[in-house]
């Protein structure tokens, strides 16, 4: 079953991107930045290094110092960039999210962050680590404020109107009850109608949320089924490893032979049985062979399991999804999960629908109940449906 539904994931890492990544890592270890230079710097094609751009660097330095004075927001900094003609490569205004990324980029004090890892850079820093750290504290405070505001208005900007295609927005209404002198807040969601006439009406947040939970529940896994999925995956992975065992042993043996040959060659040279020229020629052949054998061996050893990690991540997400659906008052988490697993959410006539799910979640969503017979000894409703008891508590 895993092979049919998730077989694709086994080809998750393709060779090309792996080679590019390897090249990048080598550059990073040498302290070189493998990408386009960040704002404030330029790529020097002659020396293949990163140099300070004397036009934009002072603007970046000023932005860090400005942000220390708390009165400046991300938008203020963006406007400051615009005023000083600091634009994107395509001459567009820099987005406020990008402003935040600039202010959080350790590159400016000399550390390169790449794919979640840190490397010491060879380039000249624009600011001190101390200034950077202080700015990070302010970024944290300012981001928290922004998040709190968004928290009041969840489910905004990711669902589209099924009639006109505009985004669904949220609105808060306060109702005052005269008799009990009580104030209550309600949230409504509706089409922004920015493109013109649209006949769609309002929907209460609770009703929208209920429908979103029904959709997300279909792509959830219960703790029990997550455990089963993990066990099957582990079994699959170890079987696959067995398949490559012969090849791995074969490569390891050849590698050992090559090492022995290299040692003997050196002895022959030292004993003056062969000339320096002969030694060099033969050695080069053997060293190249050794390098390619080592690399092939590494690929083989990883081969059996390169799909396991993304698969486990999927299982964890599906499990988390189930927990979030079962919990109460967590619209923020629900929204994040919906964005993680699904796409193309539409609302029409107060009915919410999802256009698609990311790869493996689609397999869960489309799993028809009749296929349950093919699952090892467990009917699918039991596997996927035992969130009910939690939810109704
Ligand atoms: Zn509309």
UniProtKB/TrEMBL annotation:
InterPro entries xrefs: DNA_bind_recomb_sf (IPR038109), DNA_bind_recombinase_dom (IPR011109), SSR_resolvase (IPR050639), Zn_ribbon_recom_dom (IPR025827)
Signal peptide: none
Ranges where the Recombinase domain occurs: 38-145
Coiled-coil boundaries: 241-303
Keywords associated with the record: Coiled coil
Protein's name according to its UniProt entry: Recombinase domain-containing protein
Keyword Coiled coil: yes
Native species: Candidatus Roizmanbacteria bacterium CG_4_10_14_0_8_um_filter_33_9
GO molecular function: DNA binding; DNA strand exchange activity
